[in-house]
Amino acid sequence: MKKWLTSAALAASIAALAAPAVAAPPSTAPSGPPTTISFDDVELTGCDFKVTADITGKTKEITLPSGGLIVTAPNQTATVTNEKTGKTADFVITGVFFITTDEADNITFKARGRNILTRSDGIFLTSGNVSFSFDAAGSVVTEFSTTGPGSIIDVCKVLS
Question: What is the pTM of this model?
Fold first, then answer.
């Protein structure tokens, strides 16, 4: 499930895809450097046309004593492409995800910083604090707001 959460966080950081806020920082400093990652042709949903993303950079997972997870994305970028027209856009996505699970197994993502996220009505570059959650089966419980706080760029419009 941890791999799914990381993929979901990265995909949410670009794409589509955890309960209360993380309660405490890790009791000890995380060890080791972030892992270099590269994902090509990740399909994003939300636009009226097919969108793929290539993501490069680093990621690090920090497991908290409370059972929560922090996923960082230092020096991470995404190139998103409208597969119909070939139009591309590059985004810096160095956000952080705080991921927790509640008693009902709902997974809440609290995204901070710059992330590419999907909703049922589009793909958005968010800058600021947003949160969204899924149930244990992966169905959306709550979507993030597209009205703020922070800034939101409609990636579908950028690629049209």
Answer: 0.77
